[in-house]
Design goal:
By secondary structure, this protein is an alpha/beta fold. The chain is built from 12 helices and 10 strands.
Amino acid sequence: MDVKELNKIAKIMVAPKKGILAADESTGTIKKRLDTINVESTEDNRRNWRQLLFQTKSISDYISGVILYDETLRQNTSDGISMVDLLSSKGILSGIKVDKSTHDLALSKGEVLTEGLDGLRERLTEYRELGAKFTKWRAVININDNLPTEFAINVNSILLSIYASLSQESGLVPIVEPEVLMDGDHSIEQCAEATEKTLLKVFEDLVEANVHLSGIVLKPNMVLSGKDAQNRASTEEVAKYTVEVLKNTVPADVPGIAFLSGGQEDQESIDNLNSINIVGFKENVPWELSYSYGRGLQGAPLKIWGGEHAKVSDAQKEFERRGIAVSLARQGKY
């Protein structure tokens, strides 16, 4: 493990004006996406959709890295070029989702843990050889009047720290993703409390696991009201609470924070990112405030494409439009 190299990669991932594209939908999740446009989820169709995104001419202007699924990391484009080489030719890093999704936490009501540590060390070695430069593991924290419990936070945090240490051991930069969900009717204050507790525990465990914080990227939720809350917090409140929680929890060694969109509406995720960066610049925070969006970048282009080759160019134009908008928001200039 080369700590300087990990830091170099992490800094590229959160480079100014750019963010990370989350294109790591599992086979089941991508099927749901394709079902919405009445396209069968075959390997060819999954490849065609993802290569449409990756072949967009301007993609390197607003994307620094792409999180891939196992299938995509191994795939070639229809022209016979590996997806990794296609991205690399544009100066974009390839990453890989390595967790095996969430499962019910035993004897718990409404909480989950993320599985995937079995055989991870061997998988990481293979992924590095296939060209991956970074990894991703998502932990999920739920909120209601009784949740999250300390046990759920602790268990998910420990799993994140073990994953991160294994990734760095293999020379891969871990994206550490503790997501406090926006599902429910909770207040922004409840979200702030749960997010702060979670992040404090995550960084405590990362340090105990000897993870080099200069060689990670944090992928947290923004601090939001629940999507079913009667009076949802304003963009300005989201920015204030989010930056405050980060200042209370995230060490300055961390190169950057790549926010997930987490079920926000497309425009909402742009507006909130813009406001967060405005506040971040004013308060001179020590980290890059970037993005790692999936649906927020892909949803509109997917509808335009609809599985039709003739619509590829139009879909790419929409992907570019959304990429430019998010890049401006990432600079606080939207």
